[in-house]
Every structure is written in structure tokens, then in C-alpha cells.
């Protein structure tokens, strides 16, 4: 009996996936053997989490502004150099069109106007109008390449600033759990792992920008409202 052809095919498990699964199981087993302590999160306050996220959003805004200044310093002159020739060509074409229109208005005789049109000014204007779209397409392509480079610089700059702030002491997990959880009671290895994860998480969240943090705050507020409603109903 053959299976229907429209059923999704199950992909075979690859070697790297098996290695990663075994490594994860090894980490879990090692944590159990090292007697890692489970943290009690029952006393964590939603209000304090909201205040912490608001502070993180402010810091993320500062990082965004710093990245914007870095990009303007690094790529501002290059962007001007790319756009300036196109703007100059457009202005020159516009000036030639105005000159041709002015000269045509000054001439009364239709024969003189035809002579002016045949003299070559029209050819220069038409050539400029033909070359302008090609120059605009080339400028657009160069700006797109510059935009990709700016995105990579923005990511690296934001991550660097986020890591620097995390290493200097601004860490989200510590800020959220330290007031209610005694982190000093953790085994040394677990405390080091916790700090490493906290630094990585904080760096990524800050580098992701303030919009993502605002979405977290919105979900946290909605969760708090839903929880209070359920408690009152019960």
C-alpha cells in the first residue's frame, strides 16, 4: 500500500544534529552531577520587571543613537559622494531645459526657432535626458551596496556597545532576579554560567533595539492584566 504523494516528507536526522543532541544531554547530565541549584522565581515582581525593561529600553535608545552617529561618521561622506554626481547631472539637465525654453520665448520667427532647435542644444539636452536614467540606476545600485555595508556595521557596533554595557554591570537577569534570589548561594561554576548567559542575553536584547523591548513590556503588561482578572474572577 503506497502513501499519498501530498504527505510531507520526514527529513532524516543528520550527523551534526545527533552530535548537538548528545552534547545537550551531556550538559544536562553534567549539571546534575555538579549539583546545580534550581532558582526559585516565585518572588519575582512583575512591577520590577517592567521597570527593568523600561530602563533597558532607554539604554537601547542610547545605543541606537550612538550607532546612528557612528554610521554617519563612517558612511556619510561616501553617501554624499555617490549621490552628488546624480544631483549635479539632474540640476544641469534642468538648467539646460530652462535655457532652451527661455531662448525659444525670445525668438519671434518660427524659422529662427527651428534654427535654434537644429543647432545642437536640443541634442545636448536629449543626450543628458538619456544618460540620466542610466546614471540614476548606477547610483541606486551603489547605494544598495552601501546600505548592506551599513547594516553590517550597525549590527557589529550595536553588539559591541551591548557587550560593553553588559560587562560593565548592566545585566538583565541579575537585575531581575538579584533582589529576590540569593545568587551568591549558587555553586561557582553555576554562577559563572549564569553570568555568561546573562551577558549574552543582555547584549543581544540591547543590540536588537528599543522596539523589541517595548513589545516585551506590552506583553508583560497584558499578562499582568490577564492574571489580575483571573484572580478576581476566582
Describe the structure.
- The chain is mainly alpha-helical.
- The chain has one domain (43-233).
- It has 6 helices and no strands.
- The chain has helices at residues 15-33, 46-106, 110-168, 172-177, 188-207, 210-233.
- The relative contact order is 0.13.
Quick gist of this model?
The chain has helices spanning 15-33, 46-106, 110-168, 172-177, 188-207, 210-233. The chain is mainly alpha-helical and 234 residues long. Helix 2 runs antiparallel to helix 3 and helix 2 (46-106) crosses helix 6 (210-233).
- Note poorly predicted spans: none
Shape: elongated
Provide mean pLDDT, rounded: 76
Radius of gyration: 32 Å
Query: How many β-strand runs?
Result: 0
Number of helices: 6
> How many structural domains can be distinguished in the coordinates?
1
Taken in chain order, the helices and strands follow as HHHHHH
**Major sheet, described briefly?**
none
Query: What structural class do helix, strand and pairing data support?
Result: mainly alpha
Distance between the termini: 54 Å
- The proportion of strand residues reads under 5%
State the helicity in percent bands: over 70%
Amino acid at each position: 500500500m503506497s502513501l499519498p504523494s501530498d504527505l510531507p516528507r520526514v527529513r532524516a536526522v543528520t550527523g551534526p544534529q545527533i552530535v548537538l543532541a548528545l552534547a545537550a544531554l551531556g550538559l544536562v547530565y553534567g549539571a546534575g552531577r555538579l549539583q546545580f541549584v534550581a532558582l526559585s522565581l516565585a518572588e519575582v515582581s512583575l512591577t520590577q520587571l517592567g521597570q527593568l525593561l523600561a530602563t533597558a529600553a532607554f539604554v537601547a535608545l542610547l545605543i541606537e543613537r550612538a550607532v546612528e552617529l557612528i554610521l554617519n561618521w563612517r558612511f556619510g561622506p561616501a553617501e554624499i559622494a555617490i549621490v552628488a554626481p546624480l544631483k549635479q547631472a539632474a540640476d544641469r539637465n534642468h538648467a539646460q531645459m530652462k535655457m532652451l525654453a527661455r531662448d525659444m520665448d525670445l525668438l519671434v520667427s518660427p524659422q529662427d526657432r527651428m534654427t535654434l532647435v537644429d543647432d545642437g542644444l536640443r541634442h545636448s539636452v536629449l543626450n543628458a535626458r538619456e544618460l540620466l536614467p542610466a546614471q540614476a540606476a548606477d547610483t541606486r545600485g551603489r547605494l544598495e551596496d552601501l546600505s548592506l555595508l551599513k547594516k553590517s556595521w550597525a549590527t557589529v557596533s550595536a553588539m559591541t556597545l551591548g557587550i560593553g554595557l553588559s560587562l560593565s554591570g548592566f545585566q538583565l537577569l541579575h537585575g531581575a532576579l538579584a533582589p529576590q534570589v540569593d545568587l551568591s548561594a549558587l555553586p561557582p561554576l553555576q554562577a559563572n554560567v549564569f553570568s555568561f548567559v546573562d551577558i549574552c542575553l543582555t547584549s543581544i536584547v540591547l543590540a536588537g533595539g528599543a522596539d523589541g523591548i517595548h513589545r516585551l513590556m506590552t506583553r508583560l503588561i497584558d499578562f499582568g492584566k490577564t492574571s489580575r482578572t483571573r484572580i478576581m474572577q476566582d
